[in-house]
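Input (structure):
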């Protein structure tokens, strides 16, 4: 007779919409239970807890870390807080799933990685495409288009907070003091996919569009490999609805969204496009918050399930963290351009 495993109990750090997405996705993930939220303000935490059905609110992060009924934390605070909170959580024996970009820079990431090694706890980046089986479909289809010669991966999305910036109000999303940027916020998606598919580049160049306060609003990266190159584009100040593409000598593959693929097309040379079948996304609770910018967040369930399995010793999280390390090394080279 199979013994039922105890659920992995998670505390959420932060009360932004991404934290609500996480709570809703966790409800649809067997073996995971979100129990508490950390917020600097009691009233904000209570409002979030009521909305998401959580039993505890903490306004002292150390209090959350002392809770014996929490196995791990999901960190969705501003990027400048990631390293400090993750290191503290790992030192307290809590597993950590940290939102992208996992750290503000390479030095902070190495501190987090060292803390994970010392504690023996799991450290993972909440990078949705890294766990989405749709990317596996893309990877498999690449074997059908012959020798890869080029790729164009991008994520350009006009931020709702940019309207405020244009009116003269600088919110956190456009404040360089928060260690945020277009690259760290959304450019990390196509960059991570590029490194995942093709490895670390042998050469690169990059340029950015800076706003009046120095914030990076958009950028372009060219990643060089021995016999092909990859263009990575990203922006928070304009939209680009064009699909991303991987191009080979025998055909091409396009995907609609690098963060949450909903359609992948294979077009072999001289043939009509073929829509590749994708796994059906998990069904979320009826009270789920609406998708933003037409992007489903249901694929968050895959990263949550991987975090659960890693804590149980059933998922190779160190291999995943090695990919994150490769991406962070590439980020450092981009910033040096």
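Output (sequence):
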């Amino acid at each position: 007779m199979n013994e039922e495993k105890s659920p992995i109990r998670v505390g959420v750090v932060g009360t932004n919409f991404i934290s609500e997405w996480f709570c809703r996705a966790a409800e649809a993930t067997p073996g995971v239970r979100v129990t508490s939220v950390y917020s600097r303000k009691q009233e904000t935490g209570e409002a979030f807890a009521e909305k998401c059905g959580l039993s505890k609110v903490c306004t002292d992060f150390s209090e959350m870390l002392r809770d014996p009924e929490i196995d791990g934390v999901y960190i969705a605070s501003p990027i400048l807080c990631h390293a400090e909170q993750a290191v503290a959580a790992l030192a307290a024996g809590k597993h950590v799933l940290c939102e992208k970009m996992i750290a503000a820079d390479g030095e902070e990431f190495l501190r987090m990685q060292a803390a994970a090694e010392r504690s023996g706890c799991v450290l993972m980046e909440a990078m949705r495409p890294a766990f989405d089986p749709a990317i596996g479909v893309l990877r498999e289809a690449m074997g059908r288009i012959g020798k890869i010669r080029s790729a164009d991966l991008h994520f350009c999305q006009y931020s709702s907070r940019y309207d405020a910036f244009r009116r003269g109000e600088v919110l956190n999303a456009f404040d360089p003091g928060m260690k945020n940027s277009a690259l760290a916020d959304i450019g990390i998606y196509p960059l991570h996919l590029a490194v995942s598919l093709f490895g670390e580049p042998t050469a690169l160049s990059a340029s950015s569009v800076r706003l009046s306060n120095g914030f990076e609003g958009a950028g372009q990266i060219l990643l060089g490999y021995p016999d092909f190159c990859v263009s990575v584009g990203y922006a928070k100040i304009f939209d680009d609805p064009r699909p991303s593409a991987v191009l080979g000598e025998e055909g091409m593959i396009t995907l609609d969204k690098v963060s949450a693929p909903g359609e992948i097309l294979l077009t072999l040379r001289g043939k009509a496009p073929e829509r590749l079948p994708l796994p059906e996304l998990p069904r979320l609770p009826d009270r789920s918050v609406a998708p933003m910018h037409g992007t489903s967040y249901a694929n968050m369930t895959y990263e949550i399930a991987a975090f659960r399995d890693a804590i149980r010793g059933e998922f190779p999280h160190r291999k995943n963290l090695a990919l994150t390390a490769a991406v962070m090394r590439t980020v450092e080279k981009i910033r040096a351009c």
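Notes: The chain has a mean pLDDT of 95. The CA atoms of residues 181 and 216 lie 5 Å apart.
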